[in-house]
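Q: I'm writing a short methods note and want an example of a predicted protein-small molecule complex. Could you take the sequence and the SMILES for zinc ion and return the bound structure as tokens? Please keep the output block clean; save any remarks for afterwards.
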Amino acid sequence: MGQMYQDAMARVRKFGKPDLFVTFTYNPKWKEITDALLPGQTTKDRPNLVTHVFNLQLDALLKDIKDGVLGNVIAKIWVIEFQKRGLPHMHILLILDEVSKIRTAEDYDSMVSTEISDPICHPKAYETITSCMVHGPCGPDFLNAQCMEQGKCKKRYPRFFSEETRCDVDGYFEYRRRQTRIFVDPKTQRVVDNQWIVPYNLHLATKYHAHINMEICSSIYAVKYLYKYVYKGPDRATVVIERRANMPGQDNNAQVIVANGEWQNRDEIKAYLEGRYVFAFEASWRLFSFRMHDRTPFITRLAVHEPGMHTVVYNDNASIFEIVNSERNQKTTLTEYFQANIDYPLAREVTYMDFPSVFTWTNGTKKWTIQQRGCCVRRLYFISPSASKRYFLRTLLTKVKGVVSFETTINGVVHDIFKSTCIALGLYDLDDEWNACLEEVVGMRTGAQLRSLFVTILAFGVPSESCMLWDKYKEHICDDCKVALQHRGIVEPSIEQIESWALHSLWDALAKFSKTLEDFGLPTPYVAFD
Ligand SMILES: [Zn+2]
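A: Understood, no commentary inside the block.
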């Protein structure tokens, strides 16, 4: 999932921010399902049926999107998830081309609705909206509702009425939500108006009769968190069974033993495998080998490794002898880039980073060939400065053209240590290096990850301009702190509070290296927290 997230961010760098975020949820009332249930059965008794029908609906929806019902799509990702009770849903993120971009209030209103449909003009949509697109019930009378946190709905329902679509300061859209009509839920007698309607697309709601939430996201600032949400993986719970150590008559080699509050003999891999929870719907989905995710266009991932230290994919039943001696397993995008530089003069005109714009990588043959058409999206694996050797190799590969081996000859001297090569070529200016390192990742790493990277740079790299780096990148380094403070009950945190929260976090992390913020001339937190 981590690699797919980084691929997604590479697509954002190439094509821009996503425009639409669609969540498609399975509907147990689909006719194809209810017609096929035997007397006395519910959908829970037929996971095979549920998964087959959802898979067919999903294919139809993806085909509609491909055919342009939401505009011309130039990049998309989708992921299947199973909720706690096991029902499947799909998240889709779409990037549209310039012609289809959603810009004006009219564009917004034609794409997304948040009002109860007209039962005369759109009877099918009315049926779907009233049965699938109503949020809640939640609020003071339903404090145990899933969406309730500290007495408030996390999803901000009921929303305000609004005569027109408008954008708020955080980049979230308040769609047009006029005070038009109401309906009464026949089962619960709950009176529902437009304040409770989840945003939807009229065409898709009419056609699919399911909960299809559609949001326009092109103006959301923190795009990386949107992709992170999509690639977060299934819900997880950790269950711990404890056993006292040295209890008479009990097996002291128990898998999990707690003594003096400390874990001992804890086999994390075994605990993960045995503790994994798969509901019948997910099991069925996987047994039928239905797809769990997809994305277009594909990304060429460029490996960066030391000699013989690359990743190898092999079959379970292959012997270690076969794996080690397979010629194919010796080849990577990097080793074959060296070879291509020997074989083709054209190859020597571009760096490794830009190689996929001229050459195409074929994984089947493990070869670079001159590209005939189109332009591929590429991503060079990010290497942390703490991985010293590979970090300098990566620096070399992004700046030097025509590299043919792990050894480089400069002025008659052979350098096989990447750092010494960088120094010999004058590519080693630490402050520039750390600046470039942060510049590259601010758009794709979360605030917490950036703080961890910043601490690594401070602890291992000792930049002379630490304070300049903090000032330049603090907006990104702090970009998750506002939400963290809001979760602590500070509704509108000030800039001082946000930066102080991040500085406290840096302070704690630096303490592990016996360093302090003052050692690097960084400001101390302006505000204290409990
Ligand atoms: Zn709610």
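A: Remarks, as requested: The pocket of zinc ion is lined by residues 135-136, 138, 145, 147, 153, 155, 157 (CB under 6 Å). The longest helix spans residues 47-66.
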